[in-house]
Every structure is written in C-alpha cells, then in structure tokens.
Design brief:
By secondary structure, this protein is of the alpha/beta class. 27% of the residues lie in helices and 27% in strands.
Length: 182
C-alpha cells in the first residue's frame, strides 16, 4: 500500500494488523482521485471508517488542506497516526477515535469531500449515508459524499438532501458519488 501521487508520491503506508480492514486497491484509489482531483486543492476532507488512513492521506498528498480521520478501532488509530507521522502530514490532520454515527451527530465541522468505506455487508454504508443526509450542514456547497462498497450491497436510496450523481464499478468495488439536492 502506497501513496500514488502528489507530494508524498511513492511513500509506503503501514497496514492495520489483522484482517479487520480492507484497504482500497491502488487502481480504485487512482480512479477515485482522477474523478475528484479538481475538488481537492485546499479542501477539507473527512475519511469515515478510516482504517489505515490511505484515502485521507492520498487527499492530503494531492493538495487537501486538512483531513479528519474517524475510526474507533485502536489498532487502526495507531496505524493512521504512524502513517501520518512518517509522511509528516500530522500537522494537517486530526485523528478522531469515535463511533462514526456519534461523530456525525456531534460535529460542527464542514467538509468539501466525505469518504466512507465501512465494513461490508452490514448495511453500514446506507445507515451512514442516511445519517449524513440528516446533517446537510456537514457538506460544503458543491461538496460530495463518496461511498465505497461491494456492488452487491448497492441499493437505490431516496434521500432528502443527497442525490446520486455518479457511480463507477471496478471489479468488486463500487464508488457512489452523492451531492446536495438542488
């Protein structure tokens, strides 16, 4: 696992010990960042279910101003902090050990890009998207919520504040892009 582009290009990232996380594949990460590249400069990035932190770190490497990483597993938190420290991005990042739903309910921050890749086959992506829909102020005007799931998990979600605007499938990984309605 590595940083693909930007100021930390080629730097290796540590994986979370054990099998509790599923890092994004390089080809999917490259495609994701090709799609959102225009939105990254000076953006505030939120990485929910952050795992190793590789997506938020890639965002920082490609020009995001700040990234918040939300994760509750202790091994993942340690790995994110280690990766940020070794790449020297810890001054542009905040690592938050919290339940994602508590964080969404309680934070007053606003983000340009929100990425979520929760544990698979538990319905967490849909529940998280619904929670974000109830807090439209978390997403800056023109911002996007990006969901990484297995295509078998996908369901069309009616949403009051978020609308599916793009969807891409790469093997057994689907990326869904949501934006504010209206």
């Amino acid at each position: 696992m590595r940083v693909i582009a930007g100021e930390a290009k080629g730097r290796r990232l540590h994986a979370v010990p054990g099998s509790g996380t599923r890092p994004i594949l390089d080809r999917v990460k490259e495609s994701l960042f090709n799609i959102i590249s225009w939105d990254l400069p000076d953006a505030r990035f939120l990485d929910l279910y952050a795992g190793t932190g590789s997506v938020g770190i890639e965002a920082l490497s490609r020009g995001a101003a700040h990234a918040d990483f939300v994760e509750r597993a202790g091994k993942a938190i340690s790995t994110i902090k280690r990766n940020l420290r070794e790449i020297d991005f810890d001054d542009r990042a905040t690592v938050i050990r919290r339940d994602v739903f508590d964080f969404i309910t309680e934070t007053d921050e606003q983000y340009h890009l929100i990425f979520l890749a929760p544990p698979q086959y538990k319905g967490l992506w849909a529940d998280t998207l619904r929670a974000l829909d109830r807090r439209p102020s978390l997403l800056a005007k023109g911002g996007q919520v990006i969901v990484q799931i297995d295509p078998q998990e996908y369901e069309d979600l009616s949403s009051q504040n978020l609308k599916l605007v793009d969807q891409r499938t790469y093997g057994n990984t689907m990326l869904c892009f949501y934006a504010h309605v209206g």
